[in-house]
Each structure stands twice: as C-alpha cells, then as structure tokens.
Amino acid sequence: MLVVKKALNNNVLIAEHPSYDEVVLIGKGLGFGKRPGDEVAGESAEKFFVLKDAKEQEQYKQLLDYVDESFIGFMNDAIERIEERFQVRLHEHIHVALTDHLFYAIKRINQGFDIKNPFLTETELAYPKEFDVATEIIQSLEAAFHISIPPGEIGFVALHIHSALTRRSLEEVNQHTRLISELVYVIETSLELTIDRQHVDYLRLVRHLHHAIERIQKGEYNDNQERLKKILKEEYPVCYNLSYKLIKIMQQSLKKAIPDAEAVYLTLHLQRLAKE
C-alpha cells in the first residue's frame, strides 16, 4: 500500500513506499484530489509509473518546473503505449529523458529551428519496431499540440525507446548508429560504389552491420571458420581485406576484440554488394 505525501500536480505525486521509502508516482489524473495521508491503490495502481531512483526523482521534479502539465499527461500515455506494445516495463529513465527531449524539440520548432537527423534511415532499418511506435507517438503529438514535427524527430524518439528497452545508455545507442554510418561510408569509398539508400541492398547492409555489432557486444560466435576463411581470402582478396579494415574500425569504436569469424560474415556480404 502506498500513502500520499504530496501531490505535485494532477498527474504526479510523491508517496511513501514500504520498500523504497519515497517514490514519485506518475499517471494520468493520479494526483487529482489527492491529499497527504491518502492511500493509492485499487484499479489505478496498474497505471502507475514509479520512479524509485533518487537521482531520477530529482531530475523529474525539476522537469515539472518548466514542462506543462498537459504535456506530462501526454507523455504518460505515450510511455504506456510503448510498454503495452513491447509487453515490458521500461527503464524508468525514459520518463525524464524522453519527456525532456520532446518538450525541448517542440520549443525549438516553435522558435523556427529546423531539426535534422543524418541517421534517420539507419535508425529505421536498425530498429524498425521502435521506429513504428515512435512514428505513432510523433503523429499523436502533432494532433494533440497542433504542430508540424520534422520526420527526423521520429528517429530520435526511436533511439530513446531502444535505449529504454535494452537498458543501454542513449550515448551507447547513438554511438552504434554513428558507427554504422561510418562503416557504410568506408565500404562505398573502398568499393567505389554508391548504394541507393532506398534499395534493398542498403537494408541488407545496415541490418547486417547492426547484427554484427550485437554479436560483438554479446560475444555470440561460432569461430570454427578457418576453412571458409582461407577460401574467401584467396577468392575475394579485395572484399576480404576490406572486411578487416571494417573490423579494425569496429574494434576501435566498441573497445572489444573481434574474432576472425566476423571477417568471414562481412566478406560474404561485401562480395554480394561488389557483384551487384
């Protein structure tokens, strides 16, 4: 059972929690009519978002000093939609990070600033499910607040969602997106070709590089590839050498050792690109 200590507004209140001492509860209409000492339970309990971490609590309270209450209510619904879609409880930091990000994005748009996202296509290809939900949220935001939001903002929201789902920092998620863009540039330059960003080849390439990064991070390899490695090295020397160049870039960026098996996967993919 939670007991109200203070209602900060109609959507946010501070309560006493038996395990976490003081918590911030966020939910549509949650604070309406609530007074200190009231109990918070019953059917509304499932619609709570609980901020347990003291640092997250303080950051969220600071948000309330400048973010409109109507916007807080909108973000509650948006985050609930994400959790329902993925059937998971998101890391609580998304309440601070995504609310702050979108509030300032709208502010910049209203001030006439343009929002550019050079990694929009890479983000959509790498995280299609997150991108779909982000599109819905941006469309709802446009309708609710009568504003036109540039498409690039969808990519930023998708990265926030992926960060919360994977419990990886936004900085790390952004690093991977930039790394993929850098690898594509090196491939195009080395093979002297330009890949159409709307073509299926680009889809395959970005997905492959994304999965390569995931394999490297998790260490998921079957490294018994010596026979195939020898054949590829002899048959496709240009693509094989390029694959090692890409591996060096990934090693430097990810600060992880990468087994030779990745050179085999990359060489096969690069050879298909070079032939087309």
Descriptive account of the structure:
- The structure is a single chain.
- This protein has 276 residues and is an alpha+beta fold.
- The chain is built from eleven helices and five strands.
- Strands 4-1-2-3-5 form a five-stranded antiparallel sheet.
- Strand 1 and strand 2 (12-17) form a beta hairpin.
- The N and C termini lie far apart (64 Å).
Please render the helix and strand layout as text.
Layout (H helix, E strand, L loop, with lengths): L1 E6 L4 E6 L3 E6 L12 E2 L8 E3 L2 H10 L5 H18 L6 H18 L9 H7 L1 H18 L6 H15 L3 H22 L8 H19 L7 H10 L1 H18 L6 H15 L1
Antiparallel strand pairs: 1-2, 1-4, 2-3, 3-5
- What distance lies between the first and last C-alpha atoms, to the nearest angstrom? 64 Å
The helix/strand order is: EEEEEHHHHHHHHHHH
The helix tally amounts to 11
| Helical residues, percent | 55-70%
Q: Report low-confidence residues grouped into runs of 5 or more.
A: none
Determine the structural class based on helices, strands and strand pairing. Answer: alpha+beta
Q: Could you give the order of strands across the largest sheet?
A: 4-1-2-3-5
Give the number of DSSP strands. Answer: 5
Largest sheet: 5 strands, antiparallel
Fraction of residues in β-strands: 5-15%
